Amino acid sequence: MGFYNQNAEFRSTPNSTTCGIQEALYDINSAGGGKLIISGANSPTYLLSSKTLVPNGTTNQYACLIVYSNTEIVVERNATLKQANSIGANFVIANEYMQSGYGSNTNIKIIVDGWVDANYANQGLDPGGSYFFCAGVVMYNCDHCYFSVRAKNVGRFGALVGQFSDSVIPLVWCEGITDSGLNAAALYMTDNLSINNKVGLVYSNSIQSVYLENEPSQIQIETVINNGGRIAVEINAAHDIQIGKILAIGSSFAAFVIGDTNPVAPQDQRIQINEILAYECGQAGVDFDVSVSAEYPLYCTIDNLTVYNVGYGTSNTAAGIILGSYMSKVTIGKAVIYDDQPTHTQHYFLLNNSSTTSDSILIMGGYTSGNSVRAIYDTTIFTNSRIENIVGINPVGYLSSQPALATTSVTNSNPFKCEVVITVGATATTITKNATSLGSFTSQTITLDLDVGESITLSQTTGVSWKWFGF
């Protein structure tokens, strides 16, 4: 079979590329566990020329290799596990419990220092004629595992896919996700059983680097890189997520996206990102395209955000930060967003596309320049929000759209503090700030500071004028 067994360790012979790999895995499982080493001597390509029905999976799911509990697979550097042409397996490597309710696997260790090649282009379409999964390593209902994966030429859903908990994933490196499905990613983690996983580096040069959906939680990721794909990190209903650094270089959409379309509890909650660097992304640095509720606010914090030359190479309406739908509880410590191209493609520092009020949006410092339209565009109002200490925005100056004089309460709904200069004529006018009367004034000018969310009320408006100045 091209393998020899020594003390429960199966090792391929250096001059063999025949595939007794599955047979070796069966033997390891029968022995209660063991290690399989795929030799990298002479830079071999091991063609996986058959597929096996996943024994406890959903209907008609096939893998080239099935792995079991207490099994370690090491693909040495320079070795390639490649699905042969027209085999049509859904996955190159999969575990035996692909469907909930049948059981689980534990203590699986997969180290790919060479390559897993799904050979997507030579597999054809699925029976429905729409796409072919052709994923690299797929692990469901697993716990206490270790995965270090390098994969290429994969389709949906990516290089390392699944539902696993209490696992360590030092590396996921993917080159060439050839399916255009938007939920294809180097690391695709799903379901509320994906809990307490620690991830090192995730890299992809196509589609997405990380995709989290359907409530995975307690996920720690050190570094994510997307080089010329679509999105570095997309989150659709996940919570308690910590990410160290996100680097997006020429991503066609954005570096970071929260994209719930039909969010359910607990939604995208408690997301902490230390640093995002987005260079020449197609539409945004970060895009919060999500609806939240008062019951389940977002609580997303980004300590440092740097975005430059967004909109490069596209005709998109581009902004460093995009807010969509109703947003609540987003804090950005420092935002540096600029465009230094001869022809600017960045339209806005912040684009508020929300159809309803955005609440508690805090951007506490930074810099912006090169916005071809203006710094902030909002189609609605902010409440309890602050955009402060941004060079290029603050001070805002006299508001281009001055609030109308009224005898009803007028609230400062801007995300910055305003100074209101009120000129009163011969008619006595009582001025009230919030619920406190400041007195009655005649033929004089009064200057009043209004913080975000504070209000002013005039007893009458005859002979009265005002000017609002934003800081």
What does this protein structure show overall?
This protein is mainly β. The chain folds into two domains: 3-339, Single-stranded right-handed beta-helix, Pectin lyase-like (Pectate Lyase C-like, 3 Solenoid); 397-470, no CATH class. It contains one helix and 43 strands. The chain has a 21-stranded mixed β-sheet that branches. The longest helix has 10 residues, at 21-30. The mean pLDDT is 87.
What is the compact description of this entry?
By secondary structure, the protein is mainly β. The protein contains one helix and 43 strands. The strands form four sheets. The protein has a 21-stranded mixed beta sheet that branches. Strands 5, 6, 9, 10, 13, 15, 17, 19, 21, 23, 25, 27, 29 and 32 form a 14-stranded mixed beta sheet that branches. Strands 36-43-38-41 form a four-stranded antiparallel beta sheet, with no helix packed on it.
Gross morphology is elongated
Fraction of residues in helix: under 10%
CATH class of the largest domain: Mainly Beta
Average of the residue pLDDT scores:
87
Number of helices: 1
CATH architecture of the largest domain: 3 Solenoid
Question: Which homologous superfamily in CATH is the superfamily of the largest domain?
Answer: Single-stranded right-handed beta-helix, Pectin lyase-like
The CA-CA distance between the termini, in Å, is 75 Å
User: How many beta-strand elements?
Assistant: 43
CATH fold descriptor of the largest domain:
Pectate Lyase C-like
